[in-house]
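Give me the fold.
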Amino acid sequence: MSRVIALRQGGGENWRMPRTRLNPYDEFPYESLSFAATHPEVLAVTSILRGVEPRDVETCRVLELGCALGGNLIPMAFSLPRATFLGVDLSERQISVGNSRIEELGLKNIKLQQKNILDIGPELGEFDFILCHGVFSWVPPVVQQGILRVISQNLAPHGIAYVSYNVFPGWLYKSLIREMMFFHLEGVEGAVEKAKKTRELLDALSKAMENGQTLYSSMIRLIVESIKPYPDFYLLHEYLEEENRPLYFHHFAKMAASHGLQYVGEERDLTFEGLISDEAWKKIDEFARDRVRREQYVDFFLNGTFRRSLLCREGVELHRSPENETLKRFLFSTKAKPKDEVPDFSDGHVAKFFLKSGQVVTTNDPGVKAVITELFRVWPKTLSFSDLFREVSSRYPEMASRESLSELLLDALRRCQGARMVHLHLREPGYVPSVSQRPVGSPVARFQANFNDTVTNLLHEAVSLNAFDREILKVLDGAHDQESIVDILVEDMKTGAVEVEEWPADKTSPEDVRQEMTVALTSSLKRLASLALLVG
């Protein structure tokens, strides 16, 4: 019988703070989290592929508009100690809390300022990367123009800006749900009551549409079911804020162009290339006269709801697809798991690869088979192109004998990267995949674990921890070996700090308790390692 170990939760200041001004939504503050797509290294990879050469991320300057209390920016500053970071937000409270966190961590390369975006001038200086996540769609048009003005004014000549926003056509039906919510909540006061009444409406809509056969009922049911699992703070901020202004992508690109900015590319979080058939791609290329129109057709075909768009200055020459020599600059990794440990390179064999998203990709392409199989073999480590070429050549004689193997592998890497099956890096990720006898957790994640159950890993991803893993992470400072950590757990169980569920009645001796705690610790450390939270 498996045992579930949980911890009693104590008090402590909450890491979650409201994004902007103090208002009734303080009851459900918006989480200030890290967003992997905004990390300078991720943005640099995309921009290099498009022909833009940004400053070295190790020494770059980064500005974040709407930084909240720095949940996204602080982990960046820790991971890039020679870079400089500045965050601005309208909320004086959040800036104060964020700066106190920065002081506690001893960071000297980051500062948060309370400032209105509309008041930002040239005196703030130039930045290599400007970030604006979760702001653009939730502010009035004058502030939207202000955001683009700041980017145009403060972006370095070869800098990259990141802006996220809600888009049509996907938000057409979502906007309808939003209007229903506002109608239903007329006269309702208080965030708690609004959340409760909104849940009631969603449940009623779901039941009303469950047997419907119309397009309307299908769409409403689909959207409602996608909303219901989200926590109340997301529901209130995403759907019930006073401002929520989705727009079509081509309108956004036109707004950016009016400020002397051009569209570079997209940071996507799904394997979107595989969601459109080859025939559909041919039609999109036939319809589109330029990259902006092509992207708009992508939203039409995929019912796009959200974008993470990259911008640069007008006049910078962009490439539509990366050149082979450019690809050789990167390190490569994959989380796509091959069904076959040893690839079958025969033309008739179709290989299967399982993605983290749950999708299954099939191919008979020998280059893709070799690339994914070899990269997954060394995951979570990366391989340079020269190392990948050498490993494929030595392990698979049938591939080594092929003419132009280098071109074959580069072509496979290009297509796999476009489909988000292969990830590109400028440096080796800083986490360790295995558990040492004296494990060390990420200092930033250990710090965050004091306030929240969501922490930032070494890939700049926000990951959620259960109560037990969270407490284990806190003590992984390198001063305790695994045996001494078990001592701490056993003592905490005696004092009631650790509560164990489903504990067998016949397992109460000190030896049994210690054995159970040892097993629990081993499992926890493996989970923390798999979440890229260990550095030693």
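The radius of gyration is 25 Å.
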